[in-house]
Structures are given as structure tokens and as C-alpha cells.
Design brief:
Length: about 140
């Protein structure tokens, strides 16, 4: 075979290979970005739903939204997040006679740390000092 033709064929194959690898890599990155965007939407809904369960802002609708949001996390969240969600729900459930604010805060921090780890918050959090606080609106629901 003519060396010029062989070089041209090799160049064509190399170009096609590089284009294919670039295309596949780009598609993978696009899928990861879309998945991350969807996860963020679910996590944001979950965090927003917590507002409906905070003392002073709690309502039956808020508890239903929280329940739905936590159940949705079971679909896509990695196991450490699911385990943290389950532990947190066990602590805050009405039927738990040994609920404490200290345990609530500890489990909330663990849950949020797992979520933040899953979505890749950078720089990584320091678990020893991470102390999230949920805020109630302070609005009096019975006021007119």
C-alpha cells in the first residue's frame, strides 16, 4: 500500500476516533449535569419541606410535604443519605417518646452533611464544626 494513502487512512481513523471520544465524553458530562440538576431540585424541595415541620410553622400540609419529599429521596439518593434521612425521621417522629433537641440537631447535621457530600459542595465541610439551624418564619398562623 502506498505510504501516503496509509497515512491518510490512519489520519482519518485517528480523527474519527478522537471525534467519537470527544462526543461520548461530552454526552456523559451533559447527562451528569442534568442528573445533578434534577438531584438539586429534589434536595431543595426536601429542605423547603422541612419548614412545614418546624415548631411554630408546622402544619398538617407541611408534614405531608415533608413526608412526600423524604420518600422521593429514597428513589435517587445514595445509601448514606437514605440512612441519614431514616435516622432523622425516626428521631422527629411524633411517636418517639425520647425525642431531644440535641439528637435532632446532631441527626440534622449528619443528614445535611451527607446531602452536601452527594452534591459535591466544595470545599468539603468540617463535620466537627458543622451546625445547621432551621429557622421558623415567626409568623403567627392564628393572627388575622
Amino acid at each position: 500500500m502506498n505510504p501516503t494513502i496509509a497515512a491518510a487512512i490512519l489520519g482519518l481513523i485517528s480523527s474519527l476516533g478522537a471525534a467519537l471520544v470527544t462526543y461520548l465524553f461530552t454526552k456523559k458530562r451533559e447527562r451528569e449535569a442534568e442528573w445533578r440538576k434534577e438531584k438539586l431540585a429534589y434536595y431543595m424541595t426536601f429542605i423547603e419541606s422541612m419548614s412545614g415541620t418546624i415548631e411554630g410553622d408546622a402544619s398538617p400540609e407541611g408534614h405531608r410535604a415533608f413526608s412526600k419529599a423524604t420518600n422521593n429521596l429514597l428513589l435517587f439518593a445514595p445509601q448514606p443519605v437514605v440512612e441519614a434521612v431514616n435516622a432523622f425521621r425516626d428521631e422527629i417522629r411524633i411517636s418517639n417518646p425520647t425525642r431531644t433537641q440535641e439528637q435532632h440537631d446532631k441527626l440534622l447535621a449528619m443528614l445535611l452533611l451527607q446531602i452536601r457530600r452527594d452534591i459535591g459542595v466544595s470545599p468539603p465541610d468540617n463535620a466537627a464544626t458543622f451546625r445547621p439551624i432551621l429557622w421558623a418564619s415567626g409568623a403567627n398562623r392564628n393572627a388575622t
